[in-house]
Amino acid sequence: MTKAPVPFLDLVRPHAELEDELVEVVRSALRAAAFVGGPMVEDFEQAFADYCQTRFAVGVASGTDALRFALMAAGIGRGQTVLTVPNTFIATAEAITQAGAQVDFVDVDARTLSMDPLKLREYIETKCQFEPAAGRLINTQTLSAVTAVVPVHLYGQPADMDPIIELAARYQLTVIEDACQAHGAEYLSRSEKRWLKAGSMGRAAAFSFYPGKNLGACGEGGAVTTNDEEVAAKVRMLRDHGQRRKYYHEMEGYNGRLDAIQAGILLAKLKYLPDWNERRREKAAHYRELLAPADHDLALPLEPEWARTVYHLYVVRAKERDQLKDCLSEAGIGTGIHYPIPLHLQNAYLSLGYREGDFPAAECASREVLSLPMYPELTLSQQSYVVEQLLDARTVSTQVQLSCQPALC
Predict the structure, then answer these.
(1) Pairing, β 243-245 against β 248-249
(2) Contact (CB, 8 A) for 149 and 76
(3) Which of 18, 260, 335, 352 has the most other CB atoms within 10 Å of its CB?
(4) Which residues, in sequence order, are CB contacts of 19 under 8 Å at separation 6+?
(5) What is residue 47's predicted lDDT score, i.e. its pLDDT?
(6) pLDDT tens, 38-92?
(7) Where in the chain is the domain with CATH 3.90.1150.10?
């Protein structure tokens, strides 16, 4: 069993293994002097659309751009409200407000930590009034039209999409998936009776290719996937200063293009993604087996029968989270907290007027979640060392009990 430090994320080994292939991508770009747009970007877009089982993928500069542009291309903007969850990276909410809309929150399921469809229904039925003639859902307090919902496929696991999509259809809401952590994840749709890829279920979806993602660039990058030709066309304009062709601007846009070298790197990596995801699933199974002695003291990730999770992160929950994190750090084990402060309690969103206790499931998770090392190259020896130190830390600290008792699995 290794006693060497275990990093939270290892980006050195996979790039060393692919170095020749990735260097050749750069050489090709240099020889063609094709750095913005062109065949490399187009080839990646087609391949990623095929992988996600969508008609279109449009490369952009980041996951935040992807979500912002997807919302704008779908007609979401000023005077409208978009619903999402409080336990996500701020980029989810930033994209909504930067598209011109107002963000509001729906609490999560305490077991999966993704949007709770029952809470979404409760928001609609208690805070809103539907105007059938106009086809509008109005928040009765703000008088803003609620027009869209952004479920987050958190940690590599899809949200429970069927009931969300059903509610959205009933109240004429646009569904935009935040799939920035879910490259290759799948959802078993009970209504369609088949497995669907993350990024193929809403009107559009946003992906991030930040280096640490399951499919990561060597820099920034993102993509919008959609089956809607109009949305794809608008995203292409938005990413390129609003122009359909050079110097002819249909609208004001942004400089949000995916550069050719990053697209070529992503295309080279894409063929390895299924294997990398399967290895992550194997590491998750190893963790589950190794952590069995602690299954009453730690909440392990729940993978519902309707999800094929790709474990972008492996997140456990413990009441004494901070003590466990410190003990693991002293043993040379990297960990993360995703996320320590829910968005409704961040200074950036205090103007919304929410207080502690308004979203109890998200708040409870923020106090308890701890992300353990997770990447395809993680060895069983390293995992055994992580769990050994984690179990030792439990005996040193007070007996760990979950404060809000989500279902243990």
Answers:
(1) antiparallel
(2) no
(3) 260
(4) none
(5) 98
(6) 999 999 999 999 999 999 999 999 999 999 999 999 999 999 999 999 999 999 9
(7) 274-396
Residues of the chain falling short of pLDDT 70: 1-2, 295, 395-409
Tokens of 334: 């990297």
Whether the Cβ atoms of residue 286 and residue 256 lie closer than 8 Å to each other: no
| pTM value > 0.85 | yes
Q: Any idea which residue has 């456990």 for tokens?
A: 316
What is the residue-wise DSSP string for 141-174?
TT--EEEEE--B-GGG----HHHHHHHHHHTTPE
| DSSP secondary structure, 363-383, as one string | HHHHHHEEEEP--TT--HHHH
CB atoms within 10 A of CB 334: 17
Q: What is the DSSP string of 210-232?
A: -TTSSS--SS--EEEEES-HHHH
Cα 97 from Cα 80, distance rounded (Å): 10
The CATH code that applies to domain 274-396 is: 3.90.1150.10
Q: What pLDDT is stored for residue 59 in this prediction?
A: 98
Hey, which CATH number is domain 12-270, 3.90.550.10, 3.40.640.10, 1.10.10.410, 3.40.190.10?
A: 3.40.640.10
Q: What does the pLDDT read at residue 294?
A: 78
Q: For residue 4, what pLDDT is reported?
A: 86
pLDDT, position 402: 43
Taking the alpha carbons at both ends of the chain, their separation in whole angstroms is 26
**What is the Cα–Cα distance from 347 to 357, expressed in whole angstroms?**
16
- Given a contact cutoff of 8 angstroms between Cβ atoms, the answer to whether 262 and 364 are in contact is no
